Amino acid sequence: MVIYNSVCDKIWETKLPLSEEEKDFVKKRCFNRDLFCFPNTFNIEEIHYAFGCIGFHLTFTATAPFGYKDKLNFSGSVDKDGSISINDTSDEEGYLYPDITITLKSAGDLKITNEYDKRTTVVRGCSSGETLTFTHLLQIMSSNNSHELGDDFNYKFIRINNEYGKTVNKLTFNLPCTYSISYNPIAKVVIA
User: Scanning 33, 40, 104, 111, which has the fewest C-beta atoms within 10 Å of its C-beta?
Assistant: First the structure.
């Protein structure tokens, strides 16, 4: 994959070698995540001639055949057996794991069911005021250090699903809680 990224927004006189300010500008511009959002590695090597830096050798390696759209954020609170709906705008069919933070308003066994795929995430033995964090890297954490998540979690992480013509994910929480959900929908883009 090749990405062309102009760093000519800043006008420089044609003098070599490049100053420290000019080198820093190029390096910061290349690592600016607002320009593209791909799972990747990006290498920058300075090219030196006898009198100093005259340019850069740039290598971008994508680790996936797609990019991501801007992060979507959803937050609010639900009562007992309350639901929220998330319309996935990914260009790719399939599913993604979002980052989720839940703070419980009452104790009990938390069950979150996605009506889309009928999967139920279960965390047993939760306490009132406990905060659970699920990451897109398939990790779960609790604010309660004595909560044995290894024994109390069913290891079915919440997923946001998408098929052609079917994009709404209805999540139902059996316990009252506040929630914060974020994820980056997949973007099919052409980079030339």
Answer: 33
This prediction's pTM = 0.69
Cis peptide before 17 (omega within 30 of 0): yes
Q: Largest Cα–Cα distance in the chain? A: 71
Beta strands at 72-78 and 140-142: parallel, antiparallel or unpaired: unpaired
**Which CA distances in Å does 170 have to 87, 115, 174?**
9, 5, 13
Burial environment of residue 104 by CB neighbours within 10 A (0 to 12, 13 to 18, 19 or more): buried
SS3 30: helix
* Residues whose CB falls within 8 Å of the CB of residue 129, separated by 6 or more in sequence, listed in order: 103, 104, 105
